[in-house]
């Protein structure tokens, strides 16, 4: 969404050349302290520039209007150390004491683009990490006593930092022992367990050796921006590309999901409809060992980081890529097969809105209910701006699904499933709401100058006017809360689930390259290439990444912010997620809740009279429901386990605990299966996909049948208002 403040900000910033900022990259930085015994990772000039500009953006355009000072510096240091070593496995107390000298200097350093201190801290971490990985190798082959009464403390977050390396060695000895006893309990031979764990730690060491300064810089900026607020985030170039592809639900490439296995790039899945699928030349399990662009030379990608390999395989639609393949089932020593593919635009349908229809019997009558699952509020803005009439978006996808449900499936009601939907495009939240209400305000937005803009659905008419429900949970956030809040405020449908996340802030995505004069980028590219020992740069030039900057807060049409409070459902379920650990109100840097003036809007219906009856029927079913009873027990058990920080290393005791837990879970599962007329499961047997049962969804659909029965059938489930103005 283009807010006036964003336009003004970008217009102002783009007039600045940042000559001084770039030239400052040539100024002598602080000497980088070197850590002995490790290949030190160092910052580069483009990261210095990005860091400086992020400080400026935060101080001038973040909604908090915050000054980056010594207090912020102290918080950043603590968050950064915790990000590297949350359970205190690596750093020693002496390391932490040494890092204290940086506590009140990071603010000035970041303002100057100086990154030597956090990079030094990371290099110390990397040294400790490699030391303990190497120590673990010695313990994997050591003789183990699985009959001892030792205990392994796996969660040391609240414990003091260890004062000696010997104590940390002992912690790692116990960690290795714990992994070995787990493998032993699983029933595999001892020599096989040693081989399995050795490969596991070799993979960890290999991945650590591939870390680069972009990884370190991302971690540093995460600690910095999240100290300001939870949703101001910097993305390095690779992460920025992934974020934008996720938002667009599309990318350009061959149409395959890839994973790294033992240093080899492997095809995990071939996406239907893509070039790889249509060619019939690739299968899941095939391994890619080389990549060439068009008729160019092959590059051997064995041992590469997965994102580097993927960047070579992806590319603009219409371009050719050649791959060296070792087909699935063939030895790695086999002669590779060379294939050629033409890249296309791939639409990720499996991550888009989907529909299904279920029939619920109630009081002797069948009700057909359409369920639309929306995983995120996505939109391909690039395609839309280019005039593509078929650009991907949540609203467009849902509109097509509604048309099918209404005209082909002939459903009686629709339920929108927004569980675990973390949000996305604000524009999509507004447009999607417009499919269910006539014209009117949907959300209010207050910018950092306290100007309030009311964003409305301006399209007359609705796609669905019948009975409607929305499912939410603790992971439903941001755009999901705008949509659910508007549906609730208008009386347009019933909200079912748990209190939502409580994210009531608006972020604007800013391409960092657009803040810098192109000629300066060319000079910076030459400087980075020279310092890196390169003869040139890639054809895209230097990429600086992207920042999603919190620049506004949104409010419901009633004037209430969803910040902290979220949306409270009309029909409430217990939360399977810990409310005291997940949610905006658990974030120390989150903005507070507040209110603005109520908008003028006309409600669709007054549902207040029917809610008590719906709640009563829901509670009556839950009192008799075995699923509900077991869900409550599972939540209580999870709460009890939250306080556990250690585990026994005694094989007999640990196996008895595991067996008891497995037996308990199997008994619960079989009692539920018996209640649904299914055959009992045996130990180790896998549940068939068709046997999975979504209790929350099933009960939500029953609430919808109640809703249809207590409201006027002629109006298909709505208690109409007579022009009530709110």
UniProtKB/TrEMBL annotation:
GO terms for molecular function: serine-type endopeptidase activity. One of its GO terms (biological process) is proteolysis. GO terms for cellular component: outer membrane-bounded periplasmic space. It is an enzyme of class 3 (hydrolase). Keywords: Hydrolase, Protease, Serine protease, Signal. CDD domains: cpPDZ_CPP-like (cd06782), Peptidase_S41_CPP (cd07560). Its EC number is 3.4.21.102. Gene3D superfamilies: 2-enoyl-CoA Hydratase, Chain A, domain 1, 2.30.42.10. It comes from the Bacteria. PROSITE patterns: PDZ, PROKAR_LIPOPROTEIN. Pfam families: DUF3340 (PF11818), PDZ (PF00595), Peptidase_S41 (PF03572), TSP_NTD (PF17804). Residues 244-291 form the PDZ domain. Residues 1-27 form the signal peptide. Belongs to the peptidase S41A family. NCBIfam families: prc (TIGR00225). This is Carboxyl-terminal protease.
